Amino acid sequence: MNAKHPRPTYWRSLAELDQDPKFQQMLATEFPEPLDGREMAPGTPARRRFLQIMGASFALGGCRFQEDKLLPFSRRPEGVLPGEPRRFATAMELGGVATGLVVTSYDGRPVKVEGSPLHPTSGGGASSLHQALVLGLYDPDRSEGITRLQGQARVAALPAQFEEFVAAERPNWQSRGSSVRVLSSLSSSPSLAAMKQRFLTAFAGAKWIDYSAVETDNLEAGTTLCFGKPHQAVYQLENARIVLSVHSDVASSTDPAGIVAGRGLARGRVPEGQPMSRVYAVESSLSLIGGIADHRLSMSAGSAKAFLAALDAELSSKLGDAGKGAQPKPAAKFLAEPSIAKFIAALTQDLLANRGAAVLLVGSRLPPEVQALAQRLNVLLDGVGRTVTYHEVPVRERRKDALQALVQDIQAGRVETLLVLGENPVLTAPTDLGFAAALAKVKTSIALSEFEDETALLSSWHVPLAHPLEAWGDSLAHDGTITLAQPLIAPLFGGRSVLELLALLANDPKRDGLEIVRRTHAGSLPNQKAWDRAVHDGFISGTMAAPASVTVGVLPTFALAESELRNGEASNGKLEIVLAPDSKVYDGRFGNSSWLQELPEPLSKQTWGNAVWLSPGTGKALSIADGDLVKVSAAGKELTLPALHVPGQAEGSLRIALGYGRYAAGHVGGLASANVDPVGANAYVLSALGAPFLLSDASITRLDGRQAIASVQDLHAIDAVGQAGIDERRGLLLAEANLEEFQKEPDFAKHLVHHPPLESMWNDPVSYEGHKWGMAIDLNKCTGCSACITACQAENNIPVVGKDSVLMGREMLWLRVDRYFSGSPENPKLSFQPVPCQQCENAPCEQVCPVGATMHSHEGLNDMVYNRCIGTRYCSANCPYKVRRFNYLNFHLDKVEATPFQTVTNKKKLLMHMVFNPEVTVRARGVMEKCTFCVQRIQNVKIKAKNVKRSIADGEIKTACQQTCPASAITFGDLNDPTSLVAKDHALPRAYSILEELNNRPRVRYLARIRNPHPELG
Amino acid sequence: MATLWSETNPYLGAPKGDTDFARITDNVARVAEAAKPPMGWYIAFAIALTMLTGFGASLAWVSWTGIGAWGNMHPVAWGFPIVNFVFWVGIGHAGTLISAILFLLRQTWRTAINRFAEAMTIFAVSCAGVFPGVHIGRPWMPYYMFPIPNQMNMWPQFRSPLEWDIFAVGTYFTISLLFWFMGMIPDFATLRDRATTTPRRLIYGIVAMGWRGSSRQWHRYERAYLLLAALATPLVLSVHSVVSFDFATSQAPGWHTTIFPPYFVAGAIFGGFAMVVTLAVPARQFFGLKRLIEIRHLELMNKVILATGMMVGYAYGMEFFIAWYSGNPYEVFVFVNRAFGPYAWAYWTMIACNVLIPQLHWFQKVRTNVWCTLAIGVVINVGMWFERFVIICTSMSRDFMPANWGYFVPSTIDYLTLGGSFGLFFTLFLLFCRFLPMVAIAEVKGAHRDAHANHGGHGGHDHSHAPETA
Amino acid sequence: MGLSPLSITTMKLFVFPRWANKTRQLAGVFLGVTPVYLTALIWYGASPKTTDVGYQPKQPIPYSHALHAGELGLDCRYCHTTVEETGHAAIPPTETCMNCHKVVHPTSPKLLPIRESYATNSAVPWVKVHDLPDYAYFNHSAHVTRGIGCVSCHGRVDQMEEVYQHESLSMGWCLDCHRAPEQHLRPVSEVTNMSWKPPEDQLTYGKRLRAENNIAPSQDCSTCHR
Questions:
Q1: pTM of the prediction?
Q2: Which residue, of A362, A392, A422, is where some domain finishes?
Q3: Which of A322, A627, B33, B413 is the most buried (most CB within 10 A)?
Q4: Which residues of C touch A922 (CB under 8 A)?
């Protein structure tokens, strides 16, 4: 596990490419096509293609035996086996929280990210954002070098020039340190903290501002109110019998601790044996935890304070002495509504009955008062040490004040030098702050970012930031564990990490990331052995933050504004708008990742863009239909984007995802300089410094015109006939029951469909001796977070098709997560169902393929042979699960602008091919593909085991989806081994297979969804 | 214009008196011998050729970009191409039926139209034959479907109905071609003998294969004709049954039905006859063959259309009944969805064209009016195309799992390909009208009463009822 | 066929001389034979046996397996070290060559590229001889550790001055062995022995080895295609 790996041979060629003047010029002059394949829309052929056709006729020279070269190392490094994957522990920090990862690398080329099983918080799980990390690494739009602003134009500069400039400027900074400002990405990195000190001492008087577009410090403020000192809360949801979520989106990829939360929740949702948890959710929009919830209450976000105050009053009165200093019962009319009153009553009862096993989660963007109330109740309910632990965090200036002060200083001309480290405030800062204008005023502004983004374009210097997989670093996990990040590859575009840049500016004797990080931990990791161990594990064991004991102070009585007493008023001028980070592009930083753009949003199933979520009821009241183009306005700011009806959205509450509408993201996310339209609309324009995420008194008006929403489910409005059909069969596909029903009839799921005894025309093609691979998916654990989808895409080289093709229903994702609503549209029950290929034993696809391109293996897999497939699509027609995907166009090659006769026309874009997993064939146009149960993983483990004549242990083979699932809802293994997890799951009474009446005998079984409602809410 | 042609026919002059052998030969042969075909032919040919070019262009574009150029999508993986395939295969049937089955049944009136019908069969099957090849994702390797030796030691999979199609359609095409060509040999000889220029004599001479009309040749001719007819007859039933297996043997609701084979065959004959009248009416107008293709013949065909049309209507109804009777929610849904779902428009077009409008043929006035016959023929062709569209697209667009549902929208290229296939068909057909004997001269004579007046040596036909020629 | 008097008189009608009758029989023969001939032509002409076997590209360095593996008797695994543990039988790094050639022919002009590569730490661009398509996943370790000798697929490399492709490497060729591995099985200790002879009849011996080591080569598609 030594430090830097040798730069593999073929990188050298790319490096040469980078210096090649012709290539540089081509980069400058090329006018590339959008990456999302929109030029491929049928009937609208791009002019370029016709030229290609012309060109092709000349290119038809004649085919010779293609000569391949073998380029061995000159000196093969220790322990390197050419072509063999190697795995390294590293980490990714998001919102100041680190997630421990393990990255698989082939010949020095990282291709797959997974959660680190060793790591205390990630425990093997990873979110879509982590999974998509590798694609970002090979993004051809990443900035290739330092640029500086000359007049209006940006010109390239050599690193040497930049270093000269720094050397020249340094004395000024030292003399006038008070004119230096650093806007740094919110981070918990000890090394960065140390570097910050060096920097601030080197340039006395300089100011440092922590910045995050979506992570607030409201919890710190709230805990200060409540405990007197700022604290961080760490939840142990697995210990909770009762979970109340108030507008929280834990388990989502946007929550830095989402993976921990997802796992914790899932552990409490096992109906067999142990008692099952009960989850209550109060929220303005559907969320993943709302989907898990046994009881869900739609309520506008504005009324959260009133709701918690009421709950506080209710509980405290019951708690007697313990509950001193409670809030008075707020005078909010809506609390008296029977449904809500009933809900609060049941909730109170449950919480009190489960003291010590109850926990309240509130949205991290809710105001400090709400945070304070929630933590107060957590303490009153004896949660401390059981369902929640606190640890102290240093007292810091409120971030938004610091940001405001910065802009004021700039306006007052007190700032000459501004560093922006890995953030994009020009896009993400509240508009009323006028950051862009301020930035222009600064004499020297240095933007360190992966892309030449909105901020970089306006800065006098732009320095490429090293990708997380290219740099050394460290940061704290959710529980405070120090997590180390090691590079898997030398910076492709000569990027620098934040540490390295600061070291250069502060003239730190140590300039190399590795040395800097080692210096930080010299104390805890004195010798090489300890260091190697920590790097191998990816974290320093035993550094978990010590739990602090807290005492609840008496909270003041919180005033409630008129808008905070409102709930469900669907009338213009009284609406509320909730702005939330997007589960795919987060705060916008992943806007250029085509995997994430095409990932269906877990709840709306929308790809490629954002929309205004509103409830069908509100839609009716304001006569706004699905897909209508609307104008939302609040506090004089406006935004135009399509409307989307989402069941379960609180009446009178609108939700818009942040992070879209970028004009300098890249060829995927939007690039004005290349006439690539932005994906979605930029909701930051609505946010204000005072109210960054929740805007009250908003309005929405319908504009003429509609905009198609590229959703992968219910793409077309469902008519009455269709709706009837859906209602009829939902219950047949998704087995659901309440806990007591389940306990009465544990195998209810097996009796959903009544059918005659099943007999097949065919004899079993094979007798499954040896292995018999199977999968089980626990619908009770699945949170719908969709990490599995991206994991599958990364593992299996699944192409991105682009918005137009998604609109035509040609998405390629092998694994879908179907989303069903039941109950009333106002307050629906939400169910998820991941659907991979069911690997039927009596497979309809196999019988109809005229060329035998999909055949039954002796281990029960439906082998899909791409090179035999001629694309009759009969298999897809005959697949009742429709899990087969067809390459209608040359999705992969078109991305790199290749043609049938010319492999690559745009070498830069060829970089994207580096992300391919060499263990999986890359499919070209015209062939069918589908989930293979990650057969490449199966085969490789089998070969390795047989080489040394040993048997395969259960769990040794993990499919990509199973591996990444934070909730471990997916089990995979050998059904012939009765002790294997999957065999046990298949044997469970609530295991069932979908459409089994067709006698396909699927190898995937689902474990029925069990809800645990409160008897009185039922 | 059409009437104009019939009045002053450049080849025949004004029609006069009774039709004798010489006149029959003249009527037919002269069309092929004429120096210049009528202007109408040129116009029609120009149009057909343009459409054919569109066909080529669309297919070239598809093979360049991938079949994504069509509207096919997930879940409707089979769109227009397969619809067109089934449609054209269906058209072919009437030809074989008329030439083979009616021959065996001694329906002498067939002689007026069988050449037409056979030609139509060949051309329709050629059109159909294009689609399986081009609709696949990798059109450059359809040979994987043929059982030829290869270094991979791989067979095609004979369990697959698509594989059965290869053989069914292949056989059908071969037999039809032989049947058609053999039937033309004596007429080729006639043309050869009447030929005035050497090239004509050469070409017709070669295809006539040295026919001299000796009684021995006639004898063998009749035998062979009889044998081929017997061979072709089961094919009429088998081909479309096999094509229907593509759907019937699959699991998809709306496809998984045992009624498909008879239902497809009936539909094929229905559509085929409609196409024959659609072609025969203009042809007899333009080329003055009214004396040979008589109203009586058209009327008889209309009766067949009426009968088969009602069979098809019965099948439509029966599908619904069985779906309801089976109690299978998915089956029931598919049919309700057809009639009242997003594709209701296509379904009701089909019903109107195939079930309702043909009922007009109950009235003799309509049956015997060429223009009504033509109009209804065209309508039925539209309807039969929609039948295939309804079966394929509406069933696939909403199958078992709602999460997969979609709505198929054809692309421009789709329409171009569809129109283009008609271009191919009419181009071939117009060439046939121009250069080959449109009516089976020998057979017509054989069926002619004069043939029996002077106990015609040739013609192993039933002599009892000779056609009344007005 | 003989012609009746009538036909002779009417002969003038026909543009074709009498011998033309023969053409029909000829045509018959032609139509019968051509397809068979074409199939055979393609079957043999286009098969990898014809197109690939014997492929012997020019290598950057005239490295002689005959000398090293043959005369000097180096074991294959001296250079192809990874063959028993990984999918690839890795081409040796320049280091390996230099182990000897630091002292053996240290100045030979033929070895210049080697020394350059060693000095500049750059790769020697060997040309791939046995080139499977990318969709076929062959794993050396899986075969070598089961007792399939190098020679079975690569031929007598120890007698090749410059390596050429000895087998067709076609799918059918793979299947032949996967269906009856006994034709090629040998003791694992002997895999790199180019001149190994079975102690008894190969088939019976192979069958025994197969039973002993429980060799069950799979013919599933996913064994090689993923």
A1: 0.89
A2: A392
A3: B413
A4: 134
